[in-house]
Amino acid sequence: MSVHTIVAVGLRRGLFSRFAGRVSWRSAPVILGAVIILAAIVIAITIPWWSPYDPIALAGRRLQPPSLEHWCGTDALGRDVLVRTLYGTRYSLTIAALVLAVGVSIGTLLGAVAGFVGGLLDSAIMRLADITLSFPPILLAMAIAASLGPGLVHTAVALIIVWWPIYARLMRAQVLNVKGLDHVDAAVVSGAMPGRILFKHIVPLCWSPILVNMTMDVGQVILLASGLSFIGLGAQPPTPEWGQMIAEGAGSFYSWWIAMGPGLAIFLVSLSFNFLGDGVRDFVDPRSRVST
Amino acid sequence: MSEKRDNILDVRGLRIAIPGQDGERVAVSNVDFEVARGEVLGLVGESGSGKSLSMLAVMGLLPHNMQVTGSIRFDGQELLDLPARQMRKIRGGRIAMVFQDPMTALNPVLTVGAQITEALRLHNPSLSRRALRTRALELLDLVSIPMPERRFDQYPHEFSGGMRQRVVIAIAVANDPELLIADEPTTALDVTIQAQIVEIFDRLRREKGLAIVLITHDLGLVAGLADRITILYSGRIAERGEIEAVFRRPRHPYTAGLLAAVPSIDSTIARLHAIEGTPPSLAARPPGCQFHPRCAFALPLCAERDPDFQWFGQSMAACHRAGEDLPMIGGDDGR
Amino acid sequence: MLRVILKRLILMPFLILGIVTATFVLAQFTKGNPLISIIGARALDNPDIVAAAKARWGLDKSVPQRYLIYVDNLAHGDLGTSFRTKQPVLDDLADRLPATLELVICAMIVGAVTGILLGVISAQFRDTPADHAARLFALLGSCVPMFWLGLLALFVFSVQTHLLPGPGRLDIRSDPPNTVTGFMLIDTLLAGDWDGFVDAFRHLILPSLVLGWSVTGIVARMVRASMLDVLGQDFVTMARAKGAGEGRVLFNHALRNALIPALTILGFTFAYLITGSVLVETIFSWPGIGSYAVDAARSLDYPAITGVTIVGGLGFLIANLLTDIAYAAVDPRMRSAA
């Protein structure tokens, strides 16, 4: 049973709590993922109001292991690791949202136009996508980040360049599929403008695989972004970004707790988006529940 | 039926159930059939009638979630109680199977020779490579494949459909089985090829005393090859008996309907008769006689009670009105 | 199939040109004096070198002309000089390539073996707890940040328990063998240095496992899907009907067929492993291309990072080509269609 049926049934009964016992174990990961993501978003937004310490100021003695005062210990500069990890949610979620919003917009737009118009424009766009895709993502991102200079914004630019072709390909394939459907022919025959046909009759039918991919990709964006920060090309100190924090943890090797918080955070968030992605797939394509 | 026959396969009260969330679904129930050595049994029914499931049950190849009960005796030995290891020895050794679609029954990435020798080696681990090859070539020759030497090292995609089916048969008879189960062996083939395959079956039966269960929905094929026939409908036996008796005088309206749907050269009827409606799905089996919703002669009783078998000397039918002289189309009497 | 490979071969020069052009365009965005990245900051004071470099890279010419010169230099294997190592980039890369290849190949083996095994288990025991456990394990590998996992692995297995050696390819106190192939496992054996071989092997364990696990998920997902497809086919039932045991049915009949479509992800896996190797090499101080790229990017060593990018792109193209060839070689239907 997928999230939407659960929600639908829950709403119909008006009793979510009564329903809890009937949640099938199949959907447990989806719910877990959704809860963790929701929590991460809430933390990202509200953390300044309730954080016990400043993320970039001294909070206690240096390199203290986890204690009641500092649940995840303190780092080499005496900052609270847990607070920094919680603040890190802001950077990772923002960069993922930014990269996917811009990357998917550019990619789907170019892909839709390529698939719809065809011909030379199609070839030009898709060859550009091919070339971009023929670089291992991290090398391309590193080259871009290196030429633009380090920094989170540049990381985002690099990741957008890495990500758009994936969505251009996906959208183009979708548009080509939908283009042949009857209602599109009907719109063409009735003399609708090409732009209208594309955006009113074709594109709205193409979103489901894009949505699924986007959910699954959030984790990948976060992993790559934090990876770039880890090697020093993304967020710079003292930003409490997860990859950057792990790099600091690598510097104080014996204080394992410094890297533990951000490491687990990346892992949890990326896993949650994968779980949620399964739910989204079931939602948009009920058949997938049977086959995969 | 007389119990003095030398039955190689004797199936009694076979029941196959698929447990599900909303209770179990019974795919096959109360099915009996038997085959004697050198005899051909035609197992006839539409798709979903349970004929293939029944034979997979004999082979012990049903998916694990299906529950099989009843009795399947092979040469006096109860197969349902047999440990997996011993069942494997029987499979492909004493009981072999020919599949419906030769295009998918062969492994596309292994040579034909490798697939034949595998069957041999699994049951005779001590055979040398040369002996395996010699025997495989003999088998290819037996099923009339020209130039076996060259064919041995080729892949299935280099064979035509009819040739592939011969290879499948060669694999099936590799270990001189006593029983051959042929699941719609000619359905996927051209008519001319069908005749050749039938010829091979007939020869194997005559020369090696092979017992064959022929699963099919092609009554013409059954008429040409089978000694006896069992007609399944919706997981139950509708009618069974000696082939002449059943064809001459069908006792079950379903059998009559099937016979009426077979084109025949000497037919005097102007058109073929199709049976109206479709068989019930596994999820929605009707109460009473399975056939009653489609039956032209159905009585109120038919919707209530499952009919018992009535015995007619050389055949038996599960129909409440089997004893009556109904104006059924089909069979020689109806013409 | 031969046609597909041919088509790819014909397209390849164009793609390479595209890659080169892309890096050239990127280079135009580089901040600061491009001369710095060619000859290094110190040499800027030497007018002879500056003039020579300008002439060689045509910096006094227009952008299109510069592009042509750039391509010409690349065609002659001149990727420029790293201003960090003061070596030609091509030599640097050649020195470091074997280390990366050794690691990536070992990781590929780890990923392929675990992925195939988990995929087969998943498919055979579909929708049972075994399936779910296998899929979860595979998924975890692609969600855990490698650079953190590597750190953790080093801490646990090397620092705390001393079960495995620390970073690097060999114990620092031992003499490295003569470089023949650049593969430590092979070179130590060629030198007859058994202890060195064991040491090199032990150094490879952690980075290979960490890197390999990251692709387990990709492989397992693909193998599971194609196994499910194959297991439902007649020839699998036929193999059982022959009397073959379940292991034989799974590995000899089903897996052989299931691996053919699974092969298509080899190229993709390679891209993934390159990405991973950059991070894993950094953690394990592995003297390969990945850590070279990181050092280059950190110090804004532009020729070096461009060189790595081009080589990475080429490697990716070659990996895809090899995938196609492997695909054609494994499937007899493709072989004879050629």
Automatic annotation (TrEMBL), chain A:
Residue stretches spanning the membrane: 28-50, 95-121, 128-146, 152-170, 210-233, 253-277
Membrane topology annotation: Multi-pass membrane protein
GO cellular component annotations of the record: plasma membrane
InterPro entries on file: BP-dependent_transpt_permease (IPR050366), MetI-like (IPR000515), MetI-like_sf (IPR035906)
Presence of keyword Transmembrane helix: yes
Chief subcellular location: membrane
Protein name per its UniProtKB record: ABC transporter permease
Organism in which the protein naturally occurs: Acidisoma cellulosilyticum
TrEMBL record, chain B:
Keywords recorded for this protein, A-Z: ATP-binding, Cell membrane, Membrane, Nucleotide-binding, Transport
Coiled coil: none
Keyword Cytoplasm: no
Predominant cellular place of this UniProt entry's protein: membrane
ABC transporter domain boundaries: 11-259
GO terms for biological process, alphabetical: peptide transport; transmembrane transport
A GO MF label: ATP hydrolysis activity
UniProt protein name: ABC transporter ATP-binding protein
Organism expressing this protein natively: Acidisoma cellulosilyticum
UniProtKB/TrEMBL annotation, chain C:
InterPro entries: BPD_transp_1_N, MetI-like, MetI-like_sf
Localization in the cell: Cell membrane
Gene Ontology terms: cellular component: plasma membrane
TM segment ranges: 99-121, 133-157, 204-223, 258-284, 304-330
Domain of life of the native organism: Bacteria
One Pfam entry name: BPD_transp_1_N
Annotated CDD domains: TM_PBP2
Membrane topology: Multi-pass membrane protein
Keyword Nucleus assigned: no
Keyword terms, alphabetized: Cell membrane, Membrane, Transmembrane, Transmembrane helix, Transport
GO molecular function, one term: dipeptide transmembrane transporter activity
Domain ABC transmembrane type-1: 97-323
Family: Belongs to the binding-protein-dependent transport system permease family.
Name of the protein in question: ABC transporter permease
Source species of the chain: Acidisoma cellulosilyticum
